[in-house]
Write a structure and sequence with these properties.
Number of strands: 20
CATH architecture of the largest domain: 3-Layer(aba) Sandwich
Shape: globular
Structural class: alpha/beta
Distance between the termini: 28 Å
Largest sheet: 8 strands, mixed
CATH superfamily of the largest domain: NAD(P)-binding Rossmann-like Domain
Number of helices: 12
Radius of gyration: 23 Å
Helix content: 25-40%
Length: about 425
């Protein structure tokens, strides 16, 4: 019934979009959404019925891709600390017996993928929320709340009963739960930051958004450094500032280091990305106690590197980049969200590497992805072609080697749910 719960259960390989809710889960409330089915966008409208507090709620299709659809969500109490969720679905495709023969196998296969994922992520999130059981719920502001990490973080926090204020790019906002800010004008609604427990700053221009021209590199710098300085300096002026400021950074801080094992104690590397990361982190630390979250390659088909790689691999055209020996330090999206959640209650400050404890070489990453989608891995992207296509960005991202470990997170007691690359890929791709 909480905000964010449905978004957390949304399968990332085929996410529902354009979600409009009327009411909560009580009888007569409904949900409208669009969802991809066999590559086509299908519009659904379902109505809730049969609501019994803490026992069940049910959905029936009013309009949609099925001839009929009824879904019962049943919650069975096992003991004081556990329950069982049972999903019972009765559905029929259009076309009667012919439709069942043609599409029945596909429907059953996809439902299994979706509900395996939903049960897995529900258990993951409940276990995560239980770690803060007995502690007070937090009030957290999030910048970059519409991005890949930010939108999922907001959903996770809200589903755990926390309050989220989204920083939105406008001059002012009268909408509850929004804080207006305009980094270009150097303006933010400071009064709305008073009394918060934490600020999570994730906003920044996409590094892979364009070729790295001098103008775009300045845009990258400004979006990170100026935006971070604006928020941090605003927090420093508050009479009752948040006790936690978690600011996104990147493992680009370390640069291309070949086989060297890197921790938070390692020095910065050389190049545009290390210089940018140093300036980015420096924009926050003079003002307030800060966690500089050095994030690795985030694994999700909704964005980042995996989204770009997925289609070529599905077409059987995937392979390693360059010689493939460069190290890739990555993190599953759900582990990144869990790490941020963990840091909201933890006293760590300074640099924290948000990466899996098991970095892999680019070749192994490519082979794992090919294995998960059941395709060959035989078409490498030559380094010269990567540099020709992407310029400086290719040298500092695609071809660079960073073997980074999450020493401080693990020493503080954080546990990864998806430390192996193949397990992480199977999770987010429903395979």
């Amino acid at each position: 019934m909480r905000p964010g719960a449905f978004e957390r259960l949304n399968p990332p390989w085929a996410p529902a979009t354009d979600i409009i809710r009327s009411g909560s889960l009580q009888d007569g409330s409904n949900v409208k959404l669009s969802t991809p089915i066999m590559g086509l966008k299908a519009r659904w409208e379902v109505e809730h019925f049969g609501f019994i507090q803490n026992k069940q709620f049910c959905d029936r299709q009013l309009k949609g891709p099925f001839s009929s659809w009824t879904h019962r969500h049943l919650f069975h109490s096992e003991n004081a600390s556990a329950c069982t969720l049972e999903d019972i679905i009765e559905c029929a495709p259009y076309g009667g017996k012919l439709g069942e023969l043609a599409a029945g196998w596909y429907i059953k296969s996809e439902l299994k993928r979706v509900f395996d994922y939903r049960h897995r992520i529900l258990r993951h999130d409940i276990e995560l929320h239980q770690q803060s059981s007995g502690k007070r719920r937090l009030r957290v502001a999030v910048s970059g709340a519409s991005g890949l990490v930010g939108s999922n973080l907001c959903a996770l926090l809200e589903s755990g009963g926390h309050s989220v204020a989204r920083l939105v790019r406008k001059r002012s906002s009268q909408i509850a739960g929004e804080i207006a800010w305009d980094p270009r004008r150097g303006a933010v609604e400071e009064k709305k930051l008073e009394g918060l427990d934490a600020v999570v700053h994730l906003a920044g221009e996409n590094l892979a958004g364009k070729r790295w021209t001098p103008a775009f590199k300045e845009q990258l710098r400004s979006s990170r450094v100026d935006g971070t300085n604006l928020i941090a300096s605003s927090l420093a002026r508050l009479s009752n500032p948040p006790r936690r400021f978690i600011c996104a950074s990147a493992i680009g801080f370390y640069g291309d280091r070949q086989d060297e094992i890197l921790s938070e104690e390692s020095e910065a590397g050389a190049g545009f990305l290390p210089e940018l990361a140093k300036e980015w982190e420096g924009a926050a630390t003079p003002h307030v106690p800060t966690v500089n979250l050095r994030i690795g390659v985030v694994i999700s088909p909704l964005g980042g590197a995996l989204k770009k790689m997925l289609l070529p691999f599905l077409l059987g055209l995937g392979g390693p980049i360059g010689h493939g020996r460069q190290w890739v330090s990555w993190i599953a999206l759900d582990d990144l969200l869990a790490a941020i959640y963990f840091l909201l209650y933890c006293d760590l400050t300074g640099p924290v590497n948000a990466v899996s404890p098991q970095p892999v070489r680019n070749l192994n990453f490519s082979q794992s992805l090919a294995s998960v989608v059941k395709r060959p891995c035989i078409f490498p992207l030559p380094a010269a072609v990567a540099r020709l296509a992407f310029g400086e960005m290719a040298s500092e991202t695609l071809l660079a080697s960073s073997r980074v470990l999450p020493n401080r997170l693990q020493a503080a007691g954080f546990r990864f749910s998806f430390p192996q690359i193949e397990k992480a890929l199977r999770h987010v791709l429903g395979r």
